[in-house]
Design a protein that fits this description.
Length: 147
């Protein structure tokens, strides 16, 4: 998949948004969804996506969608910090296959970091148990500040 091209409505995040495959949500509103990455690179790895845009990459996104997405990343990262007390947080976003992107619906990664726990490789992490992800999502959601 190159940097440019048509939006595939059957990409995995579009299917999650349509409820065709399960996901573990952290929070959502009419514009954005924050949910747990099922192959977490560290404990508490959250993804944030737009519910309204068909942008595949950052290059394609509408500025007003990006503003809402960025605000959602900020709110979620602050909740991750309050809930899990990481020593650092990596915010990552990949564009194009050569840029490391594997799902072509724009998304931002929030990856909590601890000095003594190496982050697993992007695309090389094992699948997490749903119950584990739900417990983490509940803790993060409970730490959300008012919108
Ligand atoms: P990308 O490589 O495009 O930046 O990130 C895609 C992310 O989606 C990866 O971190 C991967 O673990 C995650 N992912 C892939 N398939 C699924 C899925 O079915 N459910 C969830 N929740 N995450 C997924």
């Amino acid at each position: 998949m190159s940097l440019t091209g048509p939006y595939d409505p059957d990409n995995i995040f579009a299917k999650i948004l349509r409820g065709e495959i399960p996901a573990v949500p952290v929070w959502q509103d009419d514009h954005v969804l924050a949910f747990m990455d099922v192959f977490p690179q560290s404990e508490g790895h959250v993804l944030v996506i737009s519910k309204t845009s068909r942008a595949r990459t950052l290059l394609e996104v509408e500025p007003e969608v990006l503003a809402r997405l960025t605000a959602a990343v900020h709110r979620t990262a602050r909740a991750v910090d309050r809930a899990l007390a990481p020593e650092g947080i990596s915010i990552m976003q990949f564009n194009g296959e050569a840029g490391g992107q594997t799902v072509f619906h724009l998304h931002v990664h929030i990856v909590p970091r601890w000095a003594d726990r190496p982050m697993k490789g992007h695309g090389h992490a094992p699948m997490a148990e749903t119950a584990t992800l739900k417990a983490l999502a509940d803790r993060i959601a409970a730490a959300l500040e008012p919108d």
